[in-house]
Amino acid sequence: MYDLIVVGGGPAGSMCARSAALKGLDVLLLEKEKFPRTKLCGGALSPRVTESLDFDISSIIHLELHHAIVYAPSGRKVVVNKEDAKGYLIKRNEFDHFLIQKAMEAGVTVLEGVKVQSIEQIRSGVRVLSHGDSFKSHLLVGADGVNSTIARAVGIRNKWPPDRVALCIAADIPLPPKEIARILSSDGTYENAAIEMYPWAVEHGYGWCFPKRDEISLGIGYKMKHQVLDLRTAWKKFVKKFETEKGIKLDLSFQSSYRVPLGRLDKRLSTRRTMLVGDAAGLVSPITGEGIHYAIRSGIIAGHVASEAVKDKNPPHVRMYEDRLKKEMNAEFSAANFVSNIAFKSEKKIELICELAENDLILQDQMIDLVLGTRSISKIRMDLTMRLLRHYPRKAFRLLR
Fold it and tell me: Is the distance from CB of 340 to CB of 38 less than 8 angstroms?
């Protein structure tokens, strides 16, 4: 009988398991894949990620980020540079493998290649059933992603409503560093390569390009609450335009489609003995699609709550998880949804934002803070709103109405 079983070995699951094990719990982590596993992801980390971790990840960082380029629908280019705004780029297969090793170092038992089929409630806890095996624990954490088996099994959620999920197509494209520098750096050096954002590359969504050491991550995504789009046709159009403008031919062998939940803390995320973390809880920014910071923070919070519940022999204590999560993230997701509803409402609003930022260094700073996640979105929203109202009141009214 384990104290805690964590299902899913991504950042949320690994950090939940590690934080609980460091508090003295006997923890089992079940992962359906084998590490290092393939995971399509832009791989951008905000400095808030490294601040949340209790160990150094410099060995797996591919690039430090200080530069971003935002393309308006008209083609207008807004270049934002901020040397003291530091983001990081990683490969998710390396990052996730590194975190799972840190969980094991803390004493977590990790079983790979185990796909959870169902959950049973037992008198003293829960039984997790996989093909040909079962595992018992006092508490359970679902860190098994957007299509969470745990969420369905414990009755928290059967499916996502259309307004809470985005559909994406992306590819990891191998490229030598010199070629990455040529297409993404203003001075031709790999160290100064920028991330590129393409608002409205697809209706009600955006496109992106993130550089790594030997590849780029290219993708598009849109909110599914709007009419169903032919995303594959939009993807082909986006890739063709990218190739033409960059003078390059891309290898799209490693491409796939996937769904991303959009963050809002208005639904139940726990039961008497179960908590959902990361993508399984829907903790992803509705502006940028970034979810690693929220995954790690929710995992750590869940690990601490699990430790308290087990030590006090009080399973209902897990309800404190939602209280602590909302205290830390409610304002963040409220602001993110507010900004997202403005930014993705129309091409005209995106164009106006880029027009204002093109010659306003303060707005550019706030824009790169938003893209890199260097500050909380709630604080950025407040600063953006005050800047717009004080200096561009008429245009601010057009944006906010």
Answer: no
Residue span(s) of the chain under CATH 3.30.9.10 come to: 66-86+162-261
Give the tens place of pLDDT for each residue, 284-300: 998 888 899 999 999 99
* C-alpha gyration radius of the chain: 21
Q: What sign results for the dihedral spanned by CA atoms 319, 320, 324, 327?
A: positive
Mean pLDDT of 297-307: 98
User: Which residues of the chain form CATH 3.50.50.60?
Assistant: 2-42+92-160+263-337
* Number of neighbouring beta carbons within 10 Å of residue 315: 19
CA 401 to CA 397: how far, in whole Å? 6
Element (H, E) at 226: none
Whether a cis peptide bond, with omega within 30° of 0, leads into 174 is no
Confidence class for position 202, pLDDT limits 50, 70, 90 = confident
The fold adopted by the segment(s) 66-86+162-261 is D-Amino Acid Oxidase; Chain A, domain 2 (3.30.9)
The answer regarding whether domain 2-42+92-160+263-337 maps to CATH 3.50.50.60 reads yes
